[in-house]
Amino acid sequence: MSVLISFHVVFWLYQRQRSVRLWLMKISFDLDDTLIPSEGANFPTMKRNLWLLLLKVEPIRGGSVRLIKQLKSEGHEVGIYTTSYRSRFQIWLQFLMYGLSISFIINENLNRQTLSNLQNSASKYPPAFEIDLHVDDSPGVGIEGERFGFNTIIVDKQDLEWVSTVLFQIRSFQLSDQ
């Protein structure tokens, strides 16, 4: 009898898992001190080959390529939202050199123009670009997320397991919005 009940419980859990559809999201990443180190960020970066060194392509945080490829393979739209004045072409080319296709790029020029039109005083406001979740290193962006009602994941520069941290937080957001 207990074997039959256990089978039914396992079967029910299996069916429940299959019925849960994870929400596909538009996810943005900050650049400086999140994906690209600056003087203050001391996180491990991906090893650059000779071409990347010769072309002076900036180093990116270790695990970035794997994380972005995984998110895209799951069906998420992944892009960059930065307050950097780098050109959108320069950012696109930077990630292309690492074998990554970025779905959208919002730099400071586009950010300021859009937020000015909305009369929004935040440094970043992902909902203006229909972004569901923004990954950043700045606690200030996290505070703005709470204040203006948008989802953020704040990554610690010292977190060597940052990829797992981000994936766990994304799953938490997905399941909370079921």
Protein model, in words:
The longest helix has 18 residues, at 2-19. The model is unreliable at 1-20 (pLDDT under 50). The protein contains seven helices and five strands; from the N terminus they run αβααβαβαβαβα. The protein is an alpha/beta fold and 178 residues long. The protein is 43% helix and 11% strand.
Walk me through the topology:
Elements: H1 2-19, E1 26-29, H2 50-54, H3 64-73, E2 77-81, H4 88-96, E3 105-106, H5 108-117, E4 133-136, H6 139-148, E5 151-154, H7 162-176
Parallel strand pairs: 1-2, 1-4, 2-3, 4-5
* Computed Rg: 19 Å
From the helix content, strand content and strand pairing, which structural class follows? Answer: alpha/beta
The separation of the N and C termini measures 34 Å
Helical run tally: 7
Beta content comes to: 5-15%
Number of strands: 5
* Largest sheet entry: 5 strands, parallel
List keywords for this structure.
178 residues, alpha/beta, five-stranded parallel sheet, globular
Give a quick summary of the entry.
The protein has 178 residues and is an alpha/beta fold. It has seven helices and five strands; from the N terminus they run αβααβαβαβαβα.
